[in-house]
Specification:
Blueprint lengths: L1 E2 L6 E2 L5 E6 L5 H15 L3 E5 L4 H7 L5 H10 L1 E4 L13 H8 L4 E7 L11 E7 L3 E12 L2 E11 L2 H17 L4 E6 L9 H15 L4 E6 H10 L6 E4 L1 H14 L7 E5 L4 E5 L16 H13 L3 H17 L13 H13 L2
Parallel strand pairs: 3-4, 3-5, 5-14, 7-12, 10-11, 10-12
Antiparallel strand pairs: 1-2, 6-7, 6-13, 8-9, 13-14
Helix pairs in contact: 1-9, 1-11, 5-6, 7-8, 9-10, 10-11
The structure holds 1,4-dihydronicotinamide adenine dinucleotide.
1,4-dihydronicotinamide adenine dinucleotide binds next to loops.
């Protein structure tokens, strides 16, 4: 039996781990059902508490993040969620951002690994660690009227704290060392945003010298150069750590290197809970048609298993997924195949059965 570090739960096949399950919007319910079926086939000991969020919750509770959902996560400290729809511009505030704030989910972990050969880049194995609570995403922004134009100017204020920077950098270094990675690269723009991103560079240099020198390699790169280098030679990087906005952009770029959002998982790890999800959105254009690719959420479930110290199940899940995609050639349409979500899920479950 193993004590999990973050959930406080005891992780053994005989002991259940309570976890909140949020089907979400659009393709969410389809890929969540597929993922739950696969986790069941693996014998993962999660005891699901189903809760609403997003558009589904607005319709049912008048709030995209209703109280019962928050209470459930407070209890379980662990959640698997489908994508949630957020209106652009006006409308309600992003439930994803509210979840991050409510549970202080300060680290967004986005691994990107080549699973299906034959893409534009082979053998990609990168991890982006994005600061999730600070920077330009704090929402301190407003319009300033000029003359009779109510939107004459727009202002946004970013906030990065020493404590926040230290916390995310420690997370990145500790994660990299624990997972046997070779290097951490800090992505910044301290040549222009000297205070807002300079504080991360300054904190990283001090922290590395004090705590991590000799344990793992460390270097720094300016964000625009990083974007170019990732396209030219992504293999020079390993673990990238950066501020909120840069992390949002860089992690999508990295997902693009491995064939797009269909294979990109994300983990939001915090002081009070951990929430696992696919990086992609609710895909309204294909919702309800039974063709969504559940792979990204399945890979997020593998991260969730690792978080609960169920590494062996995570390895089995990833191997079965690779075998289904690569050896069996069963793929959904976004990956050039013709399998429905259901057919793909059944093929994966069959693989788990004889693995
Ligand atoms: P999207 O990621 O939902 O879709 C972009 C494209 O990728 C579409 O063509 C879609 O069909 C395809 N796609 C996405 N997931 C797929 C899957 N599993 N299988 C096959 N194809 C897939 O991005 P979009 O359209 O910009 O956003 C739609 C909604 O999702 C918005 O309301 C947005 O706010 C929300 N969203 C939610 C996120 C979350 O909850 N973490 C993350 C990103 C967007």
């Amino acid at each position: 039996m193993v004590q999990t570090a973050d959930t406080g739960a005891t992780a053994a096949p005989t002991r259940r781990i309570p976890a909140t399950l949020i089907p979400g919007d659009g393709v969410g319910p389809e890929i969540v059902e597929a993922t739950v079926a696969v986790l069941e086939a693996l014998g993962a000991p999660f005891e699901w508490q189903r809760q609403d969020a997003g558009l589904a919750a607005v319709k049912r509770h008048g709030d995209p993040l209703p109280e019962p959902t928050l209470e459930s996560i407070h209890r379980t400290r662990l959640a698997l969620k489908g994508p949630l729809e957020t209106p652009s511009g006006g409308g309600y505030r992003s439930s994803n951002v509210r979840l991050r704030e409510a549970f202080k989910l300060y680290a967004n972990l986005r691994p990107a690994r080549t699973l299906v050969p034959g893409g534009r880049y082979e053998d990609i194995d990168l991890v982006v660690v994005r600061e999730n609570l600070e920077g330009l995403y704090t929402g301190f922004e407003h319009y300033v009227p000029i003359g009779d134009d109510a939107h004459g100017a727009a202002l946004a204020v970013g906030v990065n704290t020493r404590q926040g920077m230290n916390r995310i950098l420690e997370f990145a270094f500790d994660y990299a060392i624990a997972r046997g990675r070779r290097k951490v690269t800090l992505v910044h723009k301290a040549n222009i945003m000297k205070a807002l991103t300079g504080i991360m560079l300054e904190t990283a240099n001090e922290l590395y010298a004090r705590k991590y020198a000799g344990r793992i390699a460390f270097d720094t790169v300016i964000v625009d150069a990083c974007a170019m280098k990732l396209v030219q030679n992504p293999w020079q990087f390993d673990v990238l750590v950066t501020t909120n906005l840069f992390g949002d952009i860089i992690s999508d770029l990295v997902a693009g290197l491995i064939g797009g959002l269909g294979l990109a998982p994300g983990a939001n790890i915090g002081l009070d809970a951990a929430v696992f999800e696919a990086v992609h959105g609710s895909a309204p254009d294909i919702a309800g048609r039974g063709v969504a690719n559940p792979s990204a959420l399945l890979l997020a479930a593998a991260l969730m298993l690792e978080h609960c110290r169920l590494d062996e199940l995570a390895v089995r899940l990833r191997s079965a997924l690779v075998a289904t995609l690569k050896d069996d050639g069963v793929r959904t349409t976004d990956l050039g195949g013709s399998a429905t979500t259901e057919a793909f899920t059944q093929a994966l479950i069959a693989r788990i059965g004889y693995a």
